[in-house]
């Protein structure tokens, strides 16, 4: 199984991206292949001008098309997800998330915008036709300590991320078994 991660912070070393880092380690132990994308890897003028043909955008579109699922991370900015993440989602085809499971995660300065994933990001993921959107994980800055570009996550956050990783693996396995079953039925009826 193969997932794509999208790190939606404009910062290269970022708290929300550290959630992806932790989840990736958990998922690698389940033999899930992971392909990472971040704002820094993409060509900002291409994002800002909606250049669907730019090679970095085409590479992202292809990776998303081939993925079984995605993890999308964002900081909370002005009570919503980051603007630069929106520019990334905007260059995906309108059904880019069809047949895919998505795990959204966010970090914010406080609990004030705990629901930003629910009221801001999830409707956009639905518009991109995500088949299943998991409940997601919200972390406050106080749960992510940073020292010398290393992030240390507190125990409560690690536990919630472990649960989210397990849910994602379960959803991906169910999806894989459904797809294999459907293919077998087609072969049988052919
Ligand atoms: C421009 C800006 C706007 C922010 N707006 C909010 C906000 O509305 N609510 C909130 O809880 N935190 C807000 N924060 C704090 C960030 O969400 C928080 O520090 C987050 O963990 C940063 O993640 P990152 O390191 O991945 O960029 C804001 C930070 C910045 C720089």
Q: How many distinct helices?
A: 6
Overall SS class? alpha/beta
Please give the CATH architecture: 3-Layer(aba) Sandwich
Order of helices and strands: EHEHHEEHEHEEEEH
Q: N-to-C terminal Cα separation, in Å?
A: 27 Å
Q: What gyration radius follows from the Cα positions, in whole Å?
A: 17 Å
CATH topology: Rossmann fold
Shape: globular
Structure description:
The protein is of the alpha/beta class and 190 residues long. It has helices at residues 15-28, 44-48, 55-66, 83-90, 116-127, 155-189, and strands spanning 2-7, 33-38, 69-77, 80-81, 101-108, 132-133, 137-140, 144-147, 150-153. The mean pLDDT is 95. The chain starts with a strand and ends with a helix. The strands form two sheets. Strands 1, 2, 3, 4, 5, 6 and 7 form a seven-stranded mixed beta sheet that branches. It is built from six helices and nine strands; from the N terminus they run βαβααββαβαββββα. It has a single domain (2-189), classed as Rossmann fold, CATH 3.40.50. Helices cover 45% and strands 24% of the residues. Bound molecules: flavin mononucleotide. Flavin mononucleotide binds next to helix 1, strand 3 and strand 5.
Keywords:
7-stranded mixed β-sheet, binds flavin mononucleotide, Rossmann fold, globular, two-stranded antiparallel sheet
What can be said about this structure in brief?
GO terms for molecular function: FMN reductase (NADPH) activity. With 190 residues, the protein is of the alpha/beta class.
